[in-house]
C-alpha cells in the first residue's frame, strides 16, 4: 500500500490530531508555511528557529497521554525510550528524515474480539468555543483530502454557518478545502436543518447559495423547529471520522465540539444522519442539458402565478442577448440549426414570463475580469450548445446596447449595478427568483446544470434576501440615467 503522507511532519500531525492552524498558532507561524512544510514544498530544516518549538509542541500535546502515542511510534524492545530527552531526540530525528516505511497510525478503533464485553474505551478529542470548532472542522476536511479514493462527506447543520465567518483566515481555508474536495471528485451530501425563522435572515441565506449549484453536492432541507439556544452541526467522513458540534447559547464560549474515530460512534452518528436524510426533501432539483424540457415543464405553469421577479447575475446574461446575435455567434461555431432553434426558444421562454416587476442586480466584478479579453467565453451558451462558445468585444458591446434599449422600452425593467465580491461563496452564482413560486440557480462560470427549487421557505428566503440586497443599493445606482451612463462607459472601455 502506498504511503499516503507527503512528509513525516504530516504523519506526526495526523498521529497526534494536530491541525495546521493549531500548530501555526502554537509556534506563532503563518499557517501557509506549515502547509508548505507538510506538503514538502519547503524543507523543514533543523536549523530553522521554529524547529525546536515545533518539537516541544508535539511533546506538550502528547504529555496529556503520558507520551503514549510518541512512545508507541518510536520505542521498541531493542531501543526502549525511557527518558524525555530520548523521546525528544527521536522526534527530532524523525522530522529530519524523508518519508519511508511509515507504520500505519493506530487510533485504537478496531472492534473488540471479545463479544462478552459490555464497556469499551476509545479516544475522543474535545474542542471548546468557535476556535475549537474550526480546528475540528480543519481536521475532518484534511482527512477527506487525504483519502486515497473518492469518498463522501456528510454534512448536517441546524446553524446558519455564521460561525464560519468569524475568522477571515478560517473562511479562506474552508472555501479552499471545500473546493479541493470537489476538485478531487469527492461528494458532499448536505442537509440544511436550519429553522425557518433563521433561514429567512438575509445574512444566513447567502452562505448556502453556492452549495446548490454543483453536481457533486446533493442538498436537502429539513426545516425543523429548534430550541433558540441549542444548535447542532454534524460532519461525517464515512467509516473514518465524525465531528459533532453543539452550541448551547449565543455565547461562542458555550460551544463544544468532539471528534470521534471509533467504529461505534461513526456507526451511530451515520445512522442518525441517515434518519435526518429520510425525513428530508431535495432542496434543489438538477436539470442537465438533456432535461431542460423538464425544467420548462415544471417552471412554466408557475410563471402564470408569479408577478414579481428578481434576477441576480454576473455579466453578461443570456436573457439580454439579441436573438440575431445568438444566431450569428452559434452559426460561427458550427452549432446545428435545430440546436440554435432550441436555444432561441429557451431564451424566449425566459423573457416571456408575465410580470409587474422585474428587478435585476448585475454584479459587475466578473465583467471587469473579462473586460481586457479579446474573446469572452459565455458559459450558458456553451452549456446549451454543447461546445465552447466565445463572443468578441464588439459583440459584448451589442449586448450592452441591448440592455440600454430594454431599459428605455420596458417600464417594469428595474436595473442596478452592484459590486459584491463575496468570499463566503464557493463560486459565482446566477439566480432567478419568482415571488413565492420558484427559484432557478446555476454557476455562470462553469455551467453544468440548472437547479430548481419550488420549496416555499427557500423561495421566500431568497426573495427576501434579494429584496434586502436591492434595498442596500444606493438610489443613484438604481437610477436609469446612472445605469445607462455606466453602460456607456463600459462600451467606451471596450
Could you explain how this protein is built, in words?
The structure is a single chain. With 494 residues, the chain is of the alpha+beta class. It folds into three domains: 8-96, Orthogonal Bundle (434 Repressor (Amino-terminal Domain)); 124-283, Endonuclease Chain A (Endonuclease, Chain A, 2-Layer Sandwich), CATH 3.30.870; 286-493, no CATH class. Helices cover 44% and strands 18% of the residues. The protein has 20 helices and 17 strands. It has helices at 8-15, 20-26, 31-38, 51-63, 68-74, 84-96, 129-145, 168-183, 196-199, 202-205, 263-279, 292-303, 323-332, 337-351, 365-370, 379-385, 393-409, 456-472, 475-478, 480-493; strands spanning 124-128, 152-157, 187-192, 217-221, 231-237, 241-247, 255-260, 281-282, 285-287, 308-314, 357-363, 375-377, 390-392, 413-418, 430-434, 438-442, 450-453. The strands form three sheets. An eight-stranded mixed beta sheet has the order 1-7-6-5-2-3-4-8, with helices on both faces. Strands 9-17-16-15-10-11-14 form a seven-stranded mixed beta sheet, sandwiched between helices. The longest helix has 17 residues, at 129-145. The chain is elongated and about 85 Å long. Mean pLDDT is 80; it is low at 105-113.
Radius of gyration: 27 Å
Strand order of the biggest β-sheet: 1-7-6-5-2-3-4-8
The assigned structural class equals alpha+beta
User: How much of the sequence is in beta strands?
Assistant: 15-25%
Quick one: overall form? Answer: elongated
Major β-sheet profile: 8 strands, mixed
Q: Mean pLDDT, nearest integer?
A: 80
Low-pLDDT runs = 105-113
Number of strands: 17
- Portion of residues within helices: 40-55%
Number of distinct helices? 20
Estimate nothing, just give the exact number of structural domains: 3
Q: State the separation between the terminal residues, measured CA to CA.
A: 56 Å
Amino acid at each position: 500500500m502506498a504511503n499516503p503522507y507527503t512528509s513525516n511532519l504530516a504523519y506526526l500531525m495526523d498521529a497526534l490530531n494536530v491541525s495546521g492552524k493549531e500548530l501555526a498558532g502554537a509556534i506563532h507561524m503563518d499557517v501557509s508555511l506549515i502547509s508548505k512544510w507538510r506538503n514538502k514544498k519547503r524543507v523543514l530544516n533543523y536549523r530553522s528557529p521554529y524547529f525546536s518549538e515545533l518539537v516541544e509542541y508535539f511533546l506538550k500535546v502528547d504529555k496529556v497521554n503520558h507520551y503514549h502515542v510518541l512512545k508507541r511510534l518510536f520505542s521498541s524492545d531493542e531501543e526502549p525510550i525511557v527518558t524525555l530527552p530520548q523521546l525528544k531526540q527521536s522526534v527530532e530525528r524523525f522530522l529530519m528524515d524523508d518519508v519511508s516505511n511509515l507504520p500505519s497510525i493506530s487510533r485504537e478503533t478496531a472492534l473488540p474480539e471479545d463479544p462478552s464485553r459490555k464497556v469499551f474505551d476509545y479516544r475522543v478529542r474535545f474542542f471548546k468555543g468557535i476556535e475549537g470548532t474550526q480546528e475540528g472542522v480543519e481536521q475532518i476536511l484534511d482527512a477527506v483530502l487525504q483519502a486515497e479514493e473518492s469518498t463522501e462527506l456528510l454534512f448536517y447543520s441546524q446553524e446558519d454557518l455564521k460561525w464560519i465567518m468569524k475568522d477571515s483566515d478560517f473562511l479562506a481555508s474552508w472555501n479552499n478545502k471545500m473546493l479541493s474536495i470537489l476538485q478531487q471528485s469527492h461528494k458532499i451530501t448536505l442537509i440544511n436543518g436550519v429553522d425557518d425563522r433563521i433561514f429567512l435572515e438575509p445574512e444566513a441565506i447567502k452562505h448556502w447559495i453556492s452549495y446548490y449549484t454543483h453536481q457533486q453536492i446533493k442538498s436537502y432541507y429539513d426545516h425543523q423547529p429548534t430550541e433558540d439556544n441549542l444548535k447542532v452541526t454534524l460532519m461525517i467522513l464515512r467509516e473514518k471520522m465524525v465531528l459533532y458540534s453543539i452550541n448551547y447559547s449565543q455565547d461562542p464560549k458555550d460551544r463544544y465540539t468532539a471528534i470521534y474515530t471509533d467504529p461505534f460512534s461513526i456507526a451511530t452518528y451515520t445512522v442518525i444522519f441517515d434518519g435526518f436524510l429520510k425525513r428530508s426533501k431535495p432542496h434543489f432539483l438538477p436539470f442537465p442539458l438533456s432535461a431542460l424540457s423538464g425544467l420548462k415543464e415544471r417552471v412554466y405553469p408557475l410563471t402564470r402565478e408569479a408577478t414579481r421577479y428578481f434576477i441576480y447575475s454576473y455579466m453578461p446574461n443570456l436573457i439580454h442577448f439579441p436573438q440575431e446575435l445568438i444566431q450569428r455567434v452559434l452559426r460561427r461555431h458550427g452549432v446545428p440549426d435545430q440546436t440554435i432553434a432550441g436555444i432561441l426558444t429557451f431564451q424566449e421562454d425566459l423573457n416571456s414570463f408575465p410580470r409587474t416587476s422585474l428587478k435585476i442586480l448585475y454584479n459587475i466584478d466578473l465583467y471587469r475580469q473579462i473586460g481586457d479579453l479579446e474573446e469572452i467565453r459565455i458559459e450558458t451558451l456553451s452549456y446549451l450548445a454543447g461546445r465552447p462558445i466565445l463572443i468578441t468585444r464588439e459583440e459584448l458591446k451589442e449586448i450592452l446596447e441591448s440592455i440600454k434599449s430594454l431599459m428605455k422600452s420596458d417600464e417594469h425593467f428595474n436595473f442596478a449595478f452592484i459590486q459584491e465580491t463575496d468570499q463566503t461563496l464557493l463560486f459565482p452564482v446566477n439566480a432567478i427568483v419568482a415571488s413565492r413560486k420558484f427559484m432557478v440557480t446555476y454557476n455562470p462560470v462553469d455551467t453544468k446544470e440548472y437547479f430548481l427549487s419550488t420549496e416555499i421557505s427557500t423561495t421566500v428566503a431568497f426573495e427576501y434576501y434579494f429584496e434586502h440586497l436591492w434595498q442596500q443599493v444606493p438610489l443613484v445606482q438604481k437610477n436609469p440615467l446612472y445605469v445607462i451612463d455606466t453602460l456607456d462607459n463600459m462600451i467606451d472601455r471596450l
